[in-house]
């Protein structure tokens, strides 16, 4: 038995002796495939050809729902989900959910956020975990992003493999090592672990003795360069997928690219995508949305990758609100298409909002539709794998046109149809990949009612006789006396489609094309 596994088992035995219980294992394989592919949350809703569980977040029912699900991993007949904003891991199958980790606010310490606690799996605490990986032993490797640590769920327990809850960069032994918001971790058959150390812009490796070392890139030096492990540069590497023959695929998020690491040769190449022009007053680069030849394809903050049995690469293209597929022939869009939303009547009309996780069992595509707080299952039919219409075709169907009437001026402008909305003294702005807008001028321009309860701080917005609640400091916040929220929150809650044109610094709002004409 390898050294790391021995240490984990030893920890489990100590806990057994201390608490006088037996170790149990819940992972049971089954030869019977479920009638439908599960997804998780509070309620199973079957709408051919998509089966999904909706987990719209309610802070008073936090234990029963999904909130910003991210990384996914298939484990036999189960799906493992990093239920990020609930600070836990969910294991889902049909109507059976096991939740590992105690959300902080309702946990033993009654804290508002997550925490860093090892021990029995039901009392474990995580903080904003973003990545999960199932090992060949059916242990679950967790990239515990908010705790800057790599954890493992093994049997009845959760243990820390490396990291200590403090952000930074430091090689060393197990908890002496430091990471900065790692978003993914995978394990080879030989037991070595590779980590996407996201905000350090590098890949790290953990050996069998628990030693953490730099594997590829330069800590703190983001950039875009192929080459050897010392020459390569990443910019917020996020999702990882490891093949059996030692190829590691990386969703290099802020470079808007998919990279390929040959672990045996020690080289890194770019499969598709590249950074665009540098965004003014920022160290970030513009993304894009272009299908076609892989040398010409463009992405916008791809967050996760997975592989189909034929070697095709699936990409969760988060800020394009789409799932893309890369083949030797080129890149195409499978679902979504640059337009955020949550409405659909078929796979062709499915809308996503910032998908940050993707996985497959070879027959079904699983998607973390992150800002819609749900996980989707889409059958991988031949028709589906052919892809959907391009972004330009979709925009043409909406009737929206963008031309020289809207010259670039540097400020963020919002249009409803061809009319610009006057936002008043607080203008929209971009921060941490999100676009913030003042609420009252936006919704009043759209004909909606806006009412603030001064006593509770609750904000009520009425659209077409439907009243939606936004809680202060959750759904919105106050800036210089103005109520402000994010475009993603608006898209999640209201029947508007929002399109961001970075080259024009323009936001366009309109009715989703799949709702036009019934």
Description:
The chain is mainly beta and 518 residues long. The chain is built from 5 helices and 39 strands. Strands 1-2-28-27-26 form a 5-stranded antiparallel sheet, with no helix packed on it. The chain is globular, with a radius of gyration of 23 Å. The termini are far apart.
Summary tags:
single chain, 518 residues, mainly beta, 5-stranded antiparallel beta sheet, disordered C terminus
Layout: helices, strands, pairs:
Elements: H1 3-19, E1 43-47, E2 50-54, E3 69-75, E4 78-83, E5 88-93, E6 96-100, E7 119-120, E8 131-134, E9 140-144, E10 149-154, E11 157-163, E12 172-173, E13 184-187, E14 193-197, E15 202-206, E16 211-216, E17 227-228, E18 237-242, E19 247-252, E20 257-262, E21 267-273, E22 302-307, E23 313-317, E24 322-327, E25 330-336, E26 357-360, E27 364-369, E28 374-379, H2 382-385, H3 391-398, E29 413-416, E30 419-420, E31 429-431, E32 434-438, H4 439-445, E33 449-452, E34 459-463, E35 466-470, E36 477-479, E37 482-486, H5 487-493, E38 497-501, E39 506-510
Parallel strand pairs: 29-39
Antiparallel strand pairs: 1-2, 2-28, 3-4, 4-5, 5-6, 7-11, 8-9, 9-10, 10-11, 12-16, 13-14, 14-15, 15-16, 17-21, 18-19, 19-20, 20-21, 22-23, 23-24, 24-25, 26-27, 27-28, 29-30, 31-32, 32-37, 33-34, 34-35, 36-37, 38-39
């Amino acid at each position: 038995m390898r050294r790391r596994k021995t240490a984990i088992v030893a920890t489990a035995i100590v806990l057994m002796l201390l608490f006088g219980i037996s170790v149990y294992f819940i992972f049971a394989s089954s030869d019977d495939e479920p009638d439908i592919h599960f997804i998780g949350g509070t309620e199973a809703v079957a709408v051919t050809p998509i089966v999904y569980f909706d987990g719209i977040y309610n802070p008073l029912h936090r234990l029963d729902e999904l909130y910003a699900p991210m990384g996914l991993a298939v484990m036999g007949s189960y799906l493992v989900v990093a239920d990020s904003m609930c600070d836990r891991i969910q294991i889902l199958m049909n109507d059976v959910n096991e939740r590992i980790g105690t959300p902080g606010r309702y946990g033993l310490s009654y804290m508002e956020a997550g925490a860093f606690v090892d021990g029995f799996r039901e009392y474990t605490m995580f903080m904003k975990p973003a990545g999960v990986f199932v090992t060949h032993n059916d242990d679950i490797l967790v990239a515990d992003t908010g705790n800057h640590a790599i954890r493992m769920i093994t049997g009845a327990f959760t243990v820390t493999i490396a990291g200590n809850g403090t952000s930074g960069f430091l090689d060393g032994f197990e908890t002496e090592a430091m990471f900065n918001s790692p978003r993914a971790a995978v394990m080879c058959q030989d037991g070595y672990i590779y980590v996407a150390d996201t905000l350090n812009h590098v890949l790290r490796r953990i050996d069998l003795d628990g030693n953490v070392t730099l594997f590829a890139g330069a800590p703190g030096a983001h950039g875009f360069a192929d080459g050897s492990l010392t020459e390569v540069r990443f910019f917020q590497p996020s999702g990882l997928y490891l093949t059996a023959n030692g190829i590691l695929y990386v969703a290099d998020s802020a470079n808007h690219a998919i990279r390929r690491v040959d672990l045996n040769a020690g080289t890194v190449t770019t499969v598709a995508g590249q950074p665009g022009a540098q965004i003014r007053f920022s160290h970030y680069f513009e993304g894009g949305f272009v299908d076609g030849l892989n040398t010409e394809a463009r992405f916008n903050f791809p967050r996760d990758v997975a592989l189909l049995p034929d070697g095709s690469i699936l990409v969760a293209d988060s800020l394009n609100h789409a799932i893309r597929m890369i083949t030797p022939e080129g890149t195409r869009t499978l679902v979504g298409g640059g337009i955020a939303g949550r409405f659909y009547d078929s796979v062709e009309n499915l809308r996503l909002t910032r998908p940050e996780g993707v996985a497959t069992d070879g027959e079904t595509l699983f998607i973390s539709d992150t800002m819609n707080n749900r996980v989707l299952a889409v059958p991988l039919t031949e028709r589906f794998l052919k892809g959907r219409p391009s972004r330009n075709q979709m925009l043409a169907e909406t009737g929206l046109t963008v031309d020289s009437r809207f010259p670039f001026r540097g400020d963020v402008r919002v249009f409803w149809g061809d009319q610009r909305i006057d936002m008043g003294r607080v203008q929209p702005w971009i921060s941490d990949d999100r676009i913030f807008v003042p609420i009252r001028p936006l919704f009043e321009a759209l004909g909606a009612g806006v009412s603030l309860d001064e006593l509770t701080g609750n904000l009520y917005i009425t659209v077409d006789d439907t009243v939606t609640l936004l809680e202060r400091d959750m759904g919105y916040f106050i800036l210089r006396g103005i109520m402000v929220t994010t475009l993603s929150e608006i898209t999640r809650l209201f029947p508007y489609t929002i399109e961001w044109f970075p080259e024009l610094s323009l936001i366009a709002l309109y009715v989703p094309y799949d709702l036009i004409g019934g």
